[in-house]
Amino acid sequence: MRRLFPVTDETAAPAPGGAPGGDAGREWSLDELAAAYAYPEPGPGGPVPWLRANMVSTLDGAAQHDGRSQPISSATDMRIFGTLRALADVVVVGAETVRKEGYRPARAREDFAAMREAAGQRPAPAIAVVSAGLDLDFSLPLFTSPLVPTLILTGAAAAPDRVAAAEKAGALVVTAGDGIGIDPARAVRELAGLGHTRLLTEGGPRLLGQLVAAGVLDELCLTVSPMLTAGDAQRIAGGPAVTVPHRFSLVSMLEEDGFLFTRYGRA
Predict the structure, then answer these.
(1) Contact assessment for residue 111 and residue 30, using Cβ atoms and an 8 Å cutoff
(2) What is the secondary structure of 168-189 as a DSSP string?
(3) Considering only CA atoms, which of 210, 208, 221, 228 is closest in space to residue 248?
(4) Which DSSP letter does residue 46 get?
(5) Which of 60, 59, 101, 61 is nearest to 81 (CA)?
(6) Dist. CA 33–CA 27, nearest whole Å
(7) What is d(CA 87, CA 128) in angstroms, rounded to the nearest whole number?
């Protein structure tokens, strides 16, 4: 792993063999990854919500292959995936992604236990599923055996019988919209009201598109996979286009085996 941006004396130093980048060929520790992806420090007024997305895309813009992101990922991408989860209070994910990717509860990681305790966090992040119809299998471990109770973000018009089924399974149903679906800005406020200010979303594309359109996304952690898939796979964000493109600035870029691990923040 090597850091390409921001450029420092360390990144400019030659690696063994004369290649640029003193970190090249060395596996970063989990502590180093956690420092590289740390959330902003709370300001004088205390913590405020910070929503980051973590997505992967091929060179030709595919966010999935055969409906899943794993085939275009890598071992290091998964280490970063785990690190981002370990830093978060809550992981926000769309119901379709839960179904396709077979989501399970987030697990406690011994490597991050002390860090989470010092930050006042639970042993593992909660999973918050965004679902308008609550068409979910409540017998899955995500609902029956999470370390931290699973949340469901939905609208006030959600079917009462599905809400009751979710609550019976042990999920906490959070109303984050006046109609069928959620209002992304309200969802962020509701999660912050529950003490979840370090927010992470893993998509899928439809949910990320909603968050982008609502202007609530603060940061994008995008892995650029050195693969080409063609086909008609979704991009990382879908849905209606925004009127004016939202500008983000490059915060950092790491590289390993042709994979680029980028961070972009709201400009």
Answers:
(1) yes
(2) HTT-EEEE--SSSS--HHHHHH
(3) 221
(4) B
(5) 101
(6) 10
(7) 15
- The H or E element containing residue 97 is helix 95-101
* Residues 43 and 55: beta-carbon distance below 8 Å: no
Secondary structure element (H or E) that encloses residue 78, with its range:
helix 75-87
Contact 148, 125 (CB under 8 A): yes
Pick left, alpha or beta for residue 46 (phi over 0 → left; psi -120 to 50 → alpha; otherwise beta): left
Contacts by 111-114 with C-beta closer than 8 Å and gap 24+? 111/30, 111/86, 112/30, 112/34, 112/86, 112/87
Q: Looking at the predicted structure, is the pLDDT value of residue 120 above 90? A: yes
3-state secondary structure of 235: coil
Output DSSP code: residue 112. Answer: G
Per-residue pLDDT tens digits for 74-111: 999 999 999 999 999 999 999 998 988 888 999 999 99
Structure tokens at 128: 């918050």
Burial group, residue 43, by CB count within 10 angstroms (0-12, 13-18, 19+): exposed
- Return the half-sphere exposure (C-beta side, CA atoms, 13 A cut-off) of residue 18: 0
Asked if residues 74 and 225 have their Cβ atoms less than 8 Å apart, the reply is yes
Q: What CA–CA distance (Å, rounded) separates 119 from 171?
A: 25
Using DSSP bridges, classify how beta strands 2-5 and 248-256 pair: parallel, antiparallel or unpaired: antiparallel
Neighbours of 245 (CB within 10 A): 8
Give pLDDT tens digits for 69-82: 889 999 999 999 99
Expressed in percent and rounded to 5, the helix, strand and coil fractions of the chain are 30, 25, 45
**20 pLDDT band (50/70/90 cuts)?**
low
Read off the pLDDT of each residue in 127-143 and give the average, rounded to a whole number: 95
Residue in the block written with tokens 């999660």: 191
